[in-house]
Amino acid sequence: MRVCTLLAGGLLLVVSTAALAHESAGLAGGFTSGFLHPILGWDHVVAMVAVGLWGAFLGNPAIWLLPVVFPLVMAIGGALGVAGVPIPAVETGIASSAVVLGLMVALAVRPPLWVAAVIVAAFAIFHGHAHGTELPVAASPLAYSLGFVLATGMLHVGGIAFGLLVHWPAGRWAVRAGGAAIALAGVGFLTGAL
Amino acid sequence: MRRGVRWFAGALCGLPLPAFAHSPIEGLDDFYIGLLHPLFVPAHLLGVLTLGVLVAQQGVQRVQSAVVAYFIMLVAGLATTLAELAPDVEVPLLAATALIGVLVAAAIELPRALLLVVGAVQGVLLGLDSAQPQLAGSGRLAALLGTAIAASLLMLYALAFAEWFSKRAWQRIGLRVAGSWAAASALLVLALAMAR
């Protein structure tokens, strides 16, 4: 009996494998956490969708220019976050982006292209800063940043796809209603109701 | 008791596993380690793919010299690592990738000389950053050969895909957006590398 116990115990030790308590480490973990960061934060989600909505509402070339400007300027905000440069009221800025961009769509505001780009770029700094402060602790910083840039772009595409409804009269109202809903959500984030 | 020990020793002999001293992935030989290196290093993958898109965007026929410069300087960079000269080029590589991403996003026609320099710089940086110091002799050569093949093919695949995917206006816009994403990612990690 003792021999069998020893044998069984020894065999169990030999066939043991490493414990993987924290799955998706390394590249995959970095990408996944980066990809989920904008998607799991509703304040990020509604603002990104609003950028796409507004771009589609303004038409060409804003439909693609705004989603190009946003990640580039967001990277600058992220760099500030990585460098530890404080930006006051980051969360307020993110919530305000939903309010302002949502209102732009809801009220069908059509400023010159450069004004729209500057508004979007200003808010991109806040969003980038929030993502950037998470970067130093990421398993793979580049995979993390690729993940969150890609997720941000996908949210823009989601907004653009919905915004393309503006080509139909009823769709135009639907898009403006979407903008109003985003603005209301932004007010909720600002007041802490959401 | 002695019988149990003999059984135990026998059981241990029945469960041998090969030793993988240098392989990041079990079962790979040195050539495959090198071949997969550009795929498993995000900065390399991003740098190679972005360069391929830029070349396609500028017109392959017009900037063939940039492709040739990339190949030559990639091999030169890899060869330099054999002489144990492998400076840390993480920051320049990320900066070059960010610049290429911005150029893709801007989509303006660039001078051929500038593109030649961009291709050459990206090639040598990738080569220098692909050292395999843990290997020696023929194994090291095999790994570097694998990296040269993979980094060349990846660039050509990206180039071919971007060329094929630029027939329509929305596709060209998609490439520009992808360029901005690549630039943003590289800029962020560049900031992190410089902050450290």
Give a quick precis of the structure:
Chain A has 194 residues and is mainly α. Helices cover 76% and strands 0% of the residues of chain A. The longest helix of chain A is centred in the C-terminal third of the chain and has 23 residues, at 141-163.
How would you describe this structure to a colleague?
Chain A has one domain. Helices cover 76% and strands 0% of the residues of chain A. Chain A has helices at residues 2-14, 26-39, 42-58, 62-82, 90-106, 113-132, 141-163, 169-191. In chain A, helix 4 (62-82) packs parallel to helix 6. The longest helix of chain A is centred in the C-terminal third of the chain and has 23 residues, at 141-163. Chain A is elongated, with a radius of gyration of 22 Å. In chain A, 49% of the residues are buried. With 196 residues, chain B is mainly α. Chain B has one domain (28-195). Chain B is 76% helix and 0% strand. Chain B is built from eight helices and no strands. Chain B has helices at 2-13, 30-40, 42-58, 64-82, 90-106, 112-128, 137-164, 169-195. In chain B, helix 3 (42-58) crosses helix 7. Chain B is globular. Chain B starts with a helix and ends with a helix. The relative contact order of chain B is 0.20. The chains are: A mainly alpha (194), B mainly alpha (196). The interface between A and B is medium-sized, with 38 and 32 residues.
